[in-house]
Structure to design on (677 residues):
């Protein structure tokens, strides 16, 4: 992998790169899906100042996106229960490929590349049996599907690559079926988990939250392998347990904060650039909360209506909300930009380094 | 937009300040929520106290009482999966008949211990109307058991509303509702949620796609209540909307619901309208689609007019649920 990276970096340095890079797409730092005032949907590239570097139409509402580590390619996932994802050339807006979920499957709206950018992993529902799958797609060959593995749970939502090359997946535990749309079918019996997987689909390690109705949804990974976990409470709001947690393999899940302060619902999560902070958003509470990863204490709570997108930035944390605003948060929030858009759930950082 | 709070979100954000209840909240509670949950308790008691298992009329009345509160899915209904145990639908994998088979087996577990798919009004509908269950052993006892179970659940929901939950909405500044706007938002969300459920599930599920309509997935088609349920929903949601709006001086809300009612009557006039089997043919399908559109128009009107009027802003992300 290091060899390949070095090779590509060398090519780019000589100016002889045969393929475009993120610089050719205006060097955006983040991706986010959004809704326009006319009710159309786009995938946008944002810079560190909150400016829009590109905006590409999507046929339906997006959810999260995955950024290719080298090439200016973004995979925009349709919102659950979407059956397609588009691979977009962010320089030109061209659709390079379209991923269609196989018969009997739909996507959950998240996916991730391996560090080389050769493979893309997607979370999927095998909905006739109600079991989670992870689809594997070959980005070297036009994103052809090359296989799938079990997610070892129901309703896999977010998934990430661990520093050691394994995968970690948030099995939300909620069973749905396209015939009943987004209706939750098993709230009384749901069993969410966090599962670490090798590429052959073996579950290396699995942890479950203390309360079975705390749906494990979104993840962030620190360089040392600490996993930040964001959950959504499926019971009555006032009985919500803590919904933010960290986990290191082989240890117990460590809960942070109070679920009620987050209105029982965490939308997005990301570690700060230096890994000392874990930040989450709750659009229902209208709050972004920042925890110290060492002490576990809540160190900052920022009120912000319909805030959801969050990602580490050079200056702290970048936030987006449904009102089209982009903020940077340190000790308080500074509005960087306001766009005539509704930013959707997730702000995805584009891997920096080779671009 | 600069708010910085030091540590301890709970104490800074949840500042309690006692206020008098918003009159619209009082009106919704006293003239809609509490009487309708009381009606559910009464109707399920009549079902549970029936002398024999010929309880179609009692089931019909109790089901109607449930449908009329089925949009009030917060607080007491969400404790211990009460709402799910009264009403498990949609059921895309057909879990209800298999749960009933378990309950009818020789070593059947207690009702409260089986899958919620085997409990409540939808499970009772199978026992009362589906040929597969018309003369199975233990049918009568199970009907009686499920009726008592539903009545116990309805009583528990009503008791919670009376004991404490109504007060949380009346006297905000508590852990659940920080201010009146949050209480109004909860009630407003119940209306829009009820309309959305009617459009996407009660009507949307049997509609399926043009190429593949799914009439056999229609809600309560066995008893022929499919269209009636939508009528009950509209009647109950209109009542709640008028109370939450604090009136309807220009009659716009009443007009919107009347238009939906007219579309509903047009479906009901056709044979096969009551159980939505008409979605399988083009002209019938079109009439159901018109009904769907009229309800969507109410929904749009509410988010453009009533929501802003009562200070409720619908959050793009807050409402997403992903």
């Amino acid at each position: 992998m290091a060899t390949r990276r070095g090779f590509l970096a060398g090519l780019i340095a000589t100016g002889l790169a045969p393929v475009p890079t993120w610089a050719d797409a205006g060097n955006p730092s983040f991706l986010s899906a959004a809704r326009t005032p006319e009710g159309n949907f786009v995938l946008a590239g944002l810079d560190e100042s909150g400016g829009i570097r590109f905006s590409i139409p999507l046929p339906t509402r997006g959810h999260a996106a995955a950024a290719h580590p080298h090439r200016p390619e973004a995979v925009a996932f349709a919102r659950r229960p979407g059956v397609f994802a588009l691979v977009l050339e962010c320089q030109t807006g061209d659709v390079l490929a379209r991923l269609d979920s196989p018969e009997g499957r739909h996507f959950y709206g998240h996916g991730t590349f391996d560090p080389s950018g050769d493979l893309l992993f997607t979370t999927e529902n095998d909905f006739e049996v109600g079991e989670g799958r992870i689809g594997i797609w070959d980005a070297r060959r036009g994103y052809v599907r090359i296989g799938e593995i079990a997610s070892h749970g129901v309703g896999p939502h977010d998934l990430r690559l661990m520093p050691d090359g394994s995968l970690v997946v948030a099995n939300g535990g909620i069973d749905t079926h396209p015939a009943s749309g987004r209706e939750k079918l098993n709230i009384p019996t749901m069993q969410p988990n966090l599962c670490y997987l090798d590429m052959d689909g073996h579950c290396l390690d699995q942890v479950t939250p203390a309360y079975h109705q705390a749906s494990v949804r979104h993840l962030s990974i620190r360089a040392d392998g600490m996993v930040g976990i964001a959950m959504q409470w499926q019971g009555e709001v006032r009985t919500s347990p803590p919904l933010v947690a960290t986990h290191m393999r082989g240890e117990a899940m460590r809960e942070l904060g109070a679920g009620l302060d987050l209105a029982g619902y965490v939308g997005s999560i990301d570690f700060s650039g230096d890994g000392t902070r874990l930040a989450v958003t709750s659009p229902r509470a209208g709050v972004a909360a920042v925890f110290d990863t060492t002490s576990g204490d809540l160190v900052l709570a920022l009120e912000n209506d319909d805030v959801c997108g969050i990602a580490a930035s050079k200056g702290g944390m970048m936030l987006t909300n449904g009102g089209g605003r982009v903020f940077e948060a340190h000790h308080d929030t500074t509005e960087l930009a306001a766009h005539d858009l509704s930013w959707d759930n997730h702000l995805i950082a584009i891997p920096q380094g080779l671009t | 937009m600069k708010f910085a709070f030091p540590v301890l979100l709970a104490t800074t954000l949840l500042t309690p300040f006692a206020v008098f209840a918003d009159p619209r909240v009082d009106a919704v509670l006293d003239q809609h929520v509490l009487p309708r949950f009381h009606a559910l308790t009464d109707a399920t008691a009549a079902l549970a106290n029936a002398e024999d298992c010929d309880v179609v009329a009692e089931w019909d009345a109790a089901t109607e009482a449930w449908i009329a509160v089925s949009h009030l899915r917060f607080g007491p209904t969400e404790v211990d999966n009460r709402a799910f145990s009264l009403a498990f639908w949609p059921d895309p994998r057909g879990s209800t008949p298999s749960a009933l088979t378990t309950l009818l087996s020789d070593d059947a577990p207690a009702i409260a211990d089986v899958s919620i798919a085997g409990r409540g009004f939808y499970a009772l509908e199978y026992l009362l109307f589906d040929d597969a269950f018309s003369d199975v052993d233990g049918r009568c006892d199970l009907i009686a058991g499920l009726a008592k179970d539903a009545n116990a659940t309805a009583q528990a929901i009503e008791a919670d509303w009376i004991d404490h939950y109504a007060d949380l909405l009346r006297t905000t500044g508590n852990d659940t509702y920080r201010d009146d706007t949050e209480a109004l938002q909860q009630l407003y969300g119940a209306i829009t949620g009820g309309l959305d459920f009617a459009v996407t599930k009660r009507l949307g599920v049997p509609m399926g796609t043009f190429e593949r309509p799914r009439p056999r997935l229609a809600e309560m088609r066995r008893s022929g209540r499919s269209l009636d349920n939508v009528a009950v929903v509209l009647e109950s949601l209109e009542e709640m909307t008028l109370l939450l709006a604090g009136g309807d001086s220009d009659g716009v809300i009443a007009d919107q619901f009347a238009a939906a009612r007219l579309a509903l009557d047009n479906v009901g006039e056709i044979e096969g309208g009551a159980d939505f089997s008409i979605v399988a043919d083009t002209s019938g399908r079109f009439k159901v689609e018109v009904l769907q559109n009229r309800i969507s128009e109410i929904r749009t009107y509410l988010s453009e007019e009533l929501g802003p009027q009562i200070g409720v802003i619908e959050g793009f992300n807050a409402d997403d649920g992903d």
Notes: Chain B has two domains: 21-171, 177-315. Residues 177-315 of chain B form one domain.
